[in-house]
Amino acid sequence: MNAILITTMATALLNTDCPTLTLLARGKVRDIYEVPNHPEALLFVATDRVSAFDVIMKNGIPNKGKLLTALSLFFFNYLATAPETKHIPNHVITSKISEMPEEVQVYADQLDGRAIWVRRAQVLPVEAIVRGYITGSAWGEYQKSGTMHGITLPEGMKESTQFIPPLFTPSTKAEIGDKDENIHPDQVRDHLPDPALAEPLKSYALALYSTAAKHSLAHGLILADTKFEFGLLPPPASDPTAAPTLLLVDECLTPDSSRFWPAETWAEGNKMVGFDKQFLREWLKSGGGGFGKKGGGIEEDGVEIPEDIIKATWAKYDEAFELLTGKKFSASL
Q1: pTM, full prediction
Q2: What pLDDT digit, counting tens, does each position of 295-307 carry?
Q3: CATH 3.20.20.140: does it fit domain 22-119?
Q4: Which 3 state secondary structure label does DSSP give 34?
């Protein structure tokens, strides 16, 4: 077990406190700040909060936010330089506190390793999900209706069957406290400010998935599915009539947004155990901590996660990081 977690079990950062900055939003994991005199950018901070079934738990996993940030940055850089995806821009400006505004630097002790200074974009209200294998909610829908996000699938499919090629299966992007809604790919245009964005959004998502899946497989992992978020960057002041730029935002290919499976254990029909929050999900589904008293779903209250579930979940995140990046995780990265 990575000593980083064991020695700091009581120090999970659940909420940031940067009173001279403007807190715009607290998401399931990230706190988003506006910095005075810098309207063109935002500060994204990954806390150690943990959510499952759209519910934020009472306690967190120490250093989880730093690991997610480091892994996101690895993939943002990888995808920005890979031949198949280097044409797809992302929102990262810098992750170095010393390169951020002075107003941010004063909180270095709190933010170092978990903050990214990003271009301010209009986030599109669609989760760009790509599935390479059938599992999770998609498998559940298929068992009931033979469909996935409203797409009719062949009869007789087994759990964990591979899709060749991968499929674009979007959902709406819900506000905190609401639940995302799976939609048919043809419905994406109805949720965008410009319907013409639907095709490039799908194309970008599929290219990003395929490139990341190849990298993952080369390192012993299957990328079963993932979700991307996109935004629109306004045109520059020097050319206000130019079209806005579609770019990749939020996080990128972490165990919070992706299912990674060990390639050596995959087979059609297997119920795969991934490098994600599965230990936590199974504990909650069994009624752990009293979860489920309200019937499950977003109306549930978060519960206190026991130490053994925290350690088991961290171990999976930590192992995935090392396999995907080739480096051991360090909170000082």
Answers
A1: 0.92
A2: 666 667 899 999 9
A3: no
A4: strand
